[in-house]
């Protein structure tokens, strides 16, 4: 046993988040997400695109979510926080200008499909950035906070 940053561990054992090859895998996965701009990405797509095993990709995505670099929008789809921040800025500007928006308005403003916009807005509702009022979205109580998670 040896002393580690977060407690103790067996000599020779490196947790996945401290392993250099796992960090390199996370970097490849994160680059893949970034190359997809504002598209939600499935595990299978990343695995196929990078020629990796699903279990490796799932582990990397989970680690990236834990590090705050990806956001899980649906069970098997995630989006990088850079894209979330960009989308958030567009939504905020449009909501400040118009006061409230329907999903159809948001699809037009963002240039995304309804099936892509709904999970985004559910995420924004959950973190308090927006709130759903009937068929509309308005700025929520957390709208003044900074960052993609606010």
Short characterization:
Helices cover 51% and strands 18% of the residues.
Low-confidence stretches: 144-150
Largest sheet data:
3 strands, antiparallel
Which word captures the global form?
Answer: elongated
Oligomer state of the chains in this structure = single chain
Q: What proportion strand?
A: 15-25%
DSSP, total strands: 8
CATH class of the largest domain: Mainly Alpha
**Total domains:** 2
User: Mean of the pLDDT scores?
Assistant: 85
Task: Describe this structure as you would to a colleague.
The chain has 150 residues and is α+β, with helices and mostly antiparallel strands. It has two domains: 2-79, Orthogonal Bundle (Arc Repressor Mutant, subunit A), CATH 1.10.10; 82-141, Arc Repressor Mutant, subunit A. The protein has six helices and eight strands; from the N terminus they run ββαβααββαβααββ.
Which features would summarize this protein structure in a list?
8 strands; 150 residues; Arc Repressor Mutant, subunit A; 18% strand; 2 domains; 6 helices; elongated; three-stranded antiparallel β-sheet; alpha+beta
Strand and helix map with partners:
Elements: E1 2-4, E2 7-9, H1 20-35, E3 41-42, H2 43-50, H3 54-66, E4 70-74, E5 77-80, H4 81-98, E6 101-102, H5 103-110, H6 114-126, E7 130-133, E8 136-139
Antiparallel strand pairs: 1-2, 3-5, 4-5, 6-8, 7-8
Helix pairs in contact: 1-3, 2-3, 5-6
């Amino acid at each position: 046993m040896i002393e580690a940053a977060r407690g103790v561990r067996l000599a020779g054992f490196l947790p996945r988040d401290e392993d250099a090859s796992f960090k390199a895998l996370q970097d490849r996965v994160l680059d893949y997400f970034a190359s997809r701009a504002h598209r939600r990405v499935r595990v299978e797509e990343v695995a196929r695109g990078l020629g990796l095993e699903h279990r490796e990709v799932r582990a990397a995505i989970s680690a990236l979510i834990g590090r705050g670099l990806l956001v899980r929008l649906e069970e098997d789809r995630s989006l990088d926080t850079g894209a979330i921040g960009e989308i958030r800025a567009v939504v905020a500007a449009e909501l400040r200008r118009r006061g409230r928006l329907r999903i159809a308005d948001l699809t037009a403003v963002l240039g995304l499909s309804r099936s892509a916009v709904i999970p985004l807005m559910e995420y924004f509702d959950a973190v308090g950035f927006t709130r759903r009022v009937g068929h509309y979205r308005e700025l929520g109580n957390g709208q003044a906070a900074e960052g993609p998670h606010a």
